[in-house]
C-alpha cells in the first residue's frame, strides 16, 4: 500500500457498531470515520453512549455487533473488536484518557511519564533486575525515556513541576499531565474522554493549545468526547453527534451547529418548539432547514447491523412490563422523520412576524403573514390538541382535572424526569397533582407518553412510584399538604 493511499484512508472506521447490555441498547448501528491528522469530536447529550463507544474502541467492552477497523501509518490494519485491550495500545498504538483523572498521585510528575514508557524500559533491562546495574542498553533507554518525558512536560507547560507529586498539581495541570502521559506511548490515535471537564476558561485555552500542537506537530489523530462546546467548535475538524446511541449528525462544526436534529437533541424539545426558539433569536437559515429537513445521509443506516433487519429493542421491567424502543424515540429522529403539517402560530411581535414571513414565505402548508393571512397551529395527524382537559379527553387520560384543587398545583418537578417544559404540558393536559399521576393505569401512561413524545420513559423513571411517595408525604403533614410547594 502506498503512502498516499494510507494517508487518504481514515485512521479509524467504525462500521455498524452495536452494544447491548441485556435488553438495554447503549449503541445502535453506529458508523463513522476518524480521518488521519484531524481532531474528531464525539458529542451528544448525557447518556447518548459516547463513553461506551470509547470503551469499545479501546477494548474495555467487546461490541455485540459491528467492526472497528484501524489502519496504521504503515498500512497495517487491525480489527480492534477482536483484540485484547493491552494489544490495542501496544500494537495498534491507540491511547486514551478517562473522564476521571487517573494519575499516580504519589509519584512525581516526571515519574508518571516514565511509567507510560514502562514496556520499553523493561525490554531494555531484559525483563530482569539487570537495569538496576546499568547493564546492556538500559542506560541509553532510560536516558531516551527521560528526554521524551521532559519534551512532553515542556509541551504541557509542566517542566517546572517535574519533581512535585502529581497529586499536588492544580486540576487543569493534572488534565494536561494525563494527555502528556498518553503521548509518551507514541500513539497514532489519542482518545480523550472529556478532557475539558471542570476546566476554567484559561485552562481550556491551554488545553486547546496543547491539542492543536499535538495535531500539527506529531501526526497523531485525536478523537475526543467533550461537552464544552467552546472547545469542540474551536479545535475540531469533524464532529459526530449521538442521541440514544445512534448517529444524528456528522460533519464540520458549522454544519453540526446549524443542524436542526442536533438542536432538538440538546434542547430536548419538539421540532415546532425548536422553530419557535429559532424565530425568537432570528436564525432564519436554520428555520428554513427545519422545513426542508436535514441531510438524509445523517443518522443511522437503514440496516440495524451487518445482519438485515430493523432495529427495535425491548426492555423488560421488574413488574413484567415490556417497553419497545424504536428508532423514532429520540427528539432528533422526529426532526428527520416528520414534516410540518400545518401553519405556525402568529408572531407576537413585529420582529418575530417579520422573521416568520421571511423564513416561511416559500414553505408548503404555511400562510404568509405578509399576505394578510391569519396563521394558526393545527395539530398534525395523530398529535394531541392543546387545551387542558379537552386535550386530555382526546388522549384518554382518565383523571384529568379542569383546574388544580384550591387553585394550587403540586410541584410536579419533584418527580425525577419532569422538568419545567413537561410540567407545563401536563398542566395543560389537566394533570396538576401527585395523586393523579399515582393513579395512572397503562392507558393513561400511553396517553401521556403520546402527548409528551416519550417512549417508555414514564415506566423507566417510575413516575407512578415517585408520585405515590410524594402524595403520601404531602398528605402526612400540614407543611406538605397537597396543592402546596416545598
TrEMBL record:
InterPro entries membership: AAA+_ATPase (IPR003593), ABC_AA/LPS_Transport (IPR051120), ABC_transporter-like_ATP-bd (IPR003439), BCA_ABC_TP_C (IPR032823), P-loop_NTPase (IPR027417)
Pfam families: ABC_tran, BCA_ABC_TP_C
GO biological process: D-alanine transmembrane transport; L-alanine transport; L-isoleucine import across plasma membrane; L-valine import across plasma membrane
Disordered, as annotated region: 324-407
Domain ABC transporter as annotated: residue spans: 12-269
Keyword Ribonucleoprotein in annotation: no
Comp. bias intervals (Basic and acidic residues): 324-341
Compositional bias (Low complexity): 342-363, 379-393
CDD domains per the UniProt record, alphabetical: ABC_Mj1267_LivG_branched
GO molecular function, a single term: ATP hydrolysis activity
Membrane-spanning intervals of the chain: none
Keywords: Amino-acid transport, ATP-binding, Nucleotide-binding, Transport
Gene Ontology CC: one annotated term: plasma membrane
Family named by the database record: Belongs to the ABC transporter superfamily.
Entry protein name: Branched-chain amino acid ABC transporter ATP-binding protein
Organism: Aquamicrobium defluvii
